[in-house]
Amino acid sequence: RQYQRRVHGIITMHSFGSAFTYIPKSKADYLHDKSAGRAPMTTAGESEAMAAREIDANIIRISLGVLEDVGEYATGDPFPCPRCGCFFSLHSKSNIVVEEGVAFWNCEFCSNKTKILLEPAEYPTTNSATYVLSLPAKVPEKKIDIAPGIIEAPPAKLEGSVSEIKLSEVKEEVKGAPIIKKDDISVIFCVDVSGSMNDSVSLPTGKAMKYLKNPSRVTRLEAVKTAIDAQIVQMAKESPDRRVGFITFESNVCLIGDGSNPSVMLEKEKLNDFYGIVEHTSNFSEKYISKPIKESSGRLLEKLQGINTAGCTALGPALVAAVALAAKGSAGSRVIICTDGLANEGLGAIKDSPSEQVQVREFYNQVGLYAQQHSLVVSLISLVSSECRLEMLSPISNLTNGSILRVDPLNLSTDFSALLSEKIIATQVSVKVKIPSIMQFTGVPEQYVSADKTVYIQEVGSATRDSLVTCQYSLRPLVELEKIPGLDVSNLKSMPLQSQVHYVAMDGKKCVKIVTDLVKCTTDYKSSKSGLDRKVIGSYSKHATAKWASKGMYKEALENAEKISSLPEDEEAKKEIEEKTAKIKASIEAQIAKNASTGKEDQDDQLCADCNLYFKQRDAQR
């Protein structure tokens, strides 16, 4: 069952994988759940990667599309618990005690007792409330020297807990934010023009493309140029105030911009200098992008005509330049990277040794944080039948709420159009979810959760109508629950769950949306599996699968994807399962073929062999 109660005509944020959270009623049930392989029932120290094939419905999906139109704003300020940071809500009223005429609140999340500093008229009356923290204000632009901090003094522990990183705490605080005009954003196309982009495929009969040298075949670069051409023409008509520019890369990086001035090639020594690239691009941003597309479209098309292939793939330096250039535009500006090759020149060049790969992952993670701080959306388009190690590049898109697409060159125009049509509805979005102390978040990266795993924080950056945040929770390990005196989880009928979404609205207001729900609990395992919401579980399964796959952990990715197959099937769900499984199977078979052709012998070979055997068994069962 999906919770879609309407408040001010807007669907509420929370949707759950099931109407009930399953709670084992005894130690015997708990141990039985563990032996049966049910994912949430793990003991301390056990790997969460040992997830069961059986579906886990303790999932919450937060739909950020509700930020577009919040209806009425709440009056006053939200009142927080000084211990855990949760806000007083509609459901807190039942925990009010009055002592000698003074009202106190026993927090439903941490049991902390605190004096209520609200008038009764200010108590929330619905489970959802949006507060304005500051009004829009024009503020002087302040140059943020983030690049040296990222490269010279990176976070001590990129994969630490939220309490160690606290990204939200290092953001610059201002009184309000500038108003974002409807289409006053920058769009930077960062295009691979290395030698492999000259590879060609047959052009289907009746399909027309521009820039062709051979009328019967189309190269990868010609397909990209045709797609960008179509987007320039479309944006000039539909979004005339956007500022659009090009950056191309092969062994060198060429800053073309909007064509208003001659193109500039980055010096070779700068290809390994993060700050040098940022400083050069930022200081000359007005030179590279000075006109809206309604004035620059003709020059852009002329520059596009003259782009040709050559050299290797300096993807990392080009990405830094593109992000730095887009960062000078309005919040919500976009970078679209289109490549078919492996980064092998300058910053971010992908190496074979494990230690060098760690450094490469850290580089792309840091570029993603830089883009996120400037509320950019970075999307990556990889062409099929190419090698570009998406798992290395994925942190950039994950941190900026962008997309990662692997597409056929013949369909690029459609994919570009879909990326650019997504409307930004809020920027600087940060999501915090709190659950009671007897529960814990599971199956999520460590940097997203607090030390005791009761707080989940995700920095989203810019959000669109379709942006989602999903996370999974479970009962704490038995050894921890046994230490709590007098605890009897079998009598637990419901538990609170609160989301806090901080964001900047498109009119410049800094806001926080607070939603608190009571989730029903049951000791009947079968009841917890009734009324499952396929959309919620599917969203989580998709994100979890992508997370494992991005780390090269194919076996775990397959297990996550297969979980959805335990849902009661209808024809629509069955078709969706078949399509997802087919895509994963194709990806694994391609990895096996690649290993066989290169003679590569490492642990990935065994993972792929296991996956191949698994698919053969599954096919046999069918």
Describe, in plain words, how this protein is organized in 3D.
The chain has 622 residues and is α+β, with helices and mostly antiparallel strands. It contains 18 helices and 24 strands. The two termini are 30 Å apart. 43% of the residues are buried. A hairpin with a 2-residue loop joins strand 6 (96-99) and strand 7 (102-106). The strands form 6 sheets. It has a 7-stranded mixed beta sheet with strand order 15-14-13-10-16-17-18, sandwiched between helices. Strands 4, 9, 19, 21, 23 and 24 form a 6-stranded mixed beta sheet that branches. Strands 3-5-22-20 form a 4-stranded antiparallel beta sheet, covered by helices on one side. Helix 5 (220-238) packs antiparallel against helix 8 (293-305), helix 9 (315-326) runs parallel beside helix 10 and helix 16 (554-563) runs antiparallel to helix 17 (571-598). The chain is globular.
Q: Main sheet: which strands, in order across?
A: 15-14-13-10-16-17-18
Q: What is the oligomeric state here?
A: single chain
Number of strands: 24
Helix content range of the residues, please?
A: 25-40%
Structural class: alpha+beta
What does the largest sheet look like?
7 strands, mixed
Radius of gyration: 26 Å
Beta-strand percent range: 15-25%
- Number of helices, where a helix is a run of at least 4 consecutive DSSP H or I residues: 18
How far is it from the N-terminal to the C-terminal residue, by CA?
30 Å
> What would you call the shape?
globular
